[in-house]
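Quick review question:
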């Protein structure tokens, strides 16, 4: 097993973990200070819907990287070369957004998390 293979599994696990966090937000758990600017302890309905969508997107991101590194081969119809770069750039921007968030909790917890995932995705994209 090479590092790219392990990195893609790590990306998928972290994306799945953040997806679970997003589902908890969408269900009204009081974790809103860690996400979306930290303006709400419990997210309002519109942002809960956004969190549910974010959870699905995060699961898709994990699948894309698993497919790209051939950990999974069940999605052969999915061309991942461009997707991994789009996702990597998005995660870089997301890391910057977390870094400048007004929420101290979001800056302290989500910035390192998204930064770590971004670095792994960048490594995979360049490999």
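Suggested answer, residue by residue:
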């Amino acid at each position: 097993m090479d590092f790219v293979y392990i990195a893609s599994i790590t990306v998928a696990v972290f994306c799945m973990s953040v997806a679970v966090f997003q589902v908890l937000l969408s269900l009204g758990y009081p974790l809103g200070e860690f996400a979306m600017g930290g303006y709400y302890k419990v997210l309002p309905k519109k942002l809960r819907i956004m969190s549910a969508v974010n959870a699905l997107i995060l699961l898709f991101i994990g699948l894309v990287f698993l497919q790209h590194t051939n950990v999974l081969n069940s999605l052969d119809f999915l061309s991942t070369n461009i997707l991994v770069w789009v996702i990597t750039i998005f995660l870089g921007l997301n890391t910057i957004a977390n870094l400048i968030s007004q929420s101290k909790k979001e800056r302290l917890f989500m910035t390192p998390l998204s930064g770590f995932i971004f670095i792994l995705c960048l490594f995979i994209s360049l490999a």
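Why it works: Helices lie at 3-26, 45-68, 81-99, 104-126. The mean pLDDT is 93.
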